[in-house]
Fold this sequence. Notes:
Layout: E1 11-14, E2 35-39, E3 51-54, E4 58-61, E5 87-89, H1 95-98, H2 101-106, E6 112-115, H3 117-147, H4 159-166, E7 169-172, E8 179-181, E9 184-190, E10 198-203, E11 207-210, E12 233-237, H5 248-265, E13 269-272, H6 278-291, E14 299-302, H7 305-315, E15 337-339, H8 343-349, E16 356-360, H9 370-377, E17 384-387, H10 396-401, E18 406-409, E19 412-415, E20 419-422, H11 432-442, E21 446-450, H12 454-466, E22 470-472, E23 479-482
Parallel strand pairs: 4-5, 5-6, 6-7, 11-12, 12-21, 13-16, 13-17, 14-15, 14-16, 17-20, 21-22
Antiparallel strand pairs: 1-23, 2-3, 2-23, 3-4, 8-9, 9-10, 10-11, 18-19
The protein binds zinc ion (ZN).
Amino acid sequence: MAKRTYNNLSLKIQLLKVLYEEKIVYISENHSTLMKVGFYGAARTVTGSCFMIEDNIKIAVDVGMFQGSMEKNNHGNFPFDPASLDAVILTHAHLDHAGLLPKLVKKGFEGVVYATSPTRELVKYMLYDSAKIQEEEAKTQTRRNLRKGLKPVYPVYTHEDVKDCLNLEWKKVEYGKHMNLGDITITLYNSGHVLGSAFVNIQSDLSLTVSGDLGEPGSLAIMDPELPGKTDYLIIESTYGDRNHKSMKESIDELNTAIHETFKKGGNVLIPSFALERTQELLYALRLLQERGDLPDCQIFLDSPLAIDITSVYSAHPELYSKEALMFSDPFRVRGLTYTRDVEESKEINEIDGGAIIIAGSGMCTGGRIKHHLKHNLWREECGVIFVGFQAKGTLGRRIVDGAEKVRIYGEEVAVRAKIYTINGFSSHAGKDFLLEWSRACDPRRAFVVHGEMDISRNLALSLEKQGITAVVPEMRQVAELV
Ligand SMILES: [Zn+2]
């Protein structure tokens, strides 16, 4: 194809394919690069967020873990030298944004980590929990492998690696406060996604805004996301770039209906839930149902030590609550709620045939106690399973949501006979309309659409283009040179 030059475009892209062949842009080589952005995760996929910003210093925004069908990527080498990095900025504590930080340290990173104070508190629990799961899984798999004459497997990182990572220099950043790193200034703003979550503005000779994960205004427990200021370039998430969520009010009503329907049949309600944010939103939703007299008296179990710890961090930060949540002294306290930390207490829940609400992780049913509860309840048609979060391709949760008639859990075939509910309004991610509104506030020269399945990212990119914002969907490991 002939090389075309657009003089008025100020972005030089190397190896960057744009949405459609006819729109591939080649830029004049005359400009000198001011900043480079490498897309080392969450490019044409949802997990593994990691964007490398190279100016006069080298910063990674997020070092996320790959999940679902991309999980094997966690075991490979980083596509860059971790020792060469000056700093890491964490947008929030979800594992797909912060989960590979211990591995980064293990591989030589010795720089500074910038994060908000709640992110630092939450990430400790998230990383220790992740190491524990990995160590347990590696142990089980090694036992199986050795029996077959195969090699042992190793966790991506261990408890000790997490300790090393938490012993790095961590700088706690307040929303809206400028921080200088060499010649660049970084500022974190509230992204309204989880407690302490942030979007990042990086300012040097040009400005780049990285959305991290954006929340939807009107979420229950925490403050709404801020709108960004003008920026030259934008990296925008697109988890739900092709659709809008139902309102929170409708979602609470759906939750109420699902609980009543299931209890009427005499079954249990299972809610696979992410420990961070979704669980707290759910607890608060149950509290609201209780306040309005809709929730029947019942036993509610929060069967996740991680979610229990995280709820305690939420309870310690009322300054970040929404106005509505502030009206309660503790919005996450629900009548009938039992925290089950011990395995034995968790096992006792298996004896309950009906009338209980069981909230357990993991949110996509890839591990954790929810798998035991599914094994005991999924085959019973009087039970209900309520999915309240995104289910990535390749996960057990996704297979159930997609209508599988039977699934394998711990090597056993289990029929899916329980009623499956999907309530999407509890999502802590912004829907399409807000992503577009937020991007318009940035008014960038160009947007890079990331953190979405390919078709969804493409859908958002096309919508941005319709609004006059040039948008591309970068591939994994591509590098854009910004001028
Ligand atoms: Zn997130």
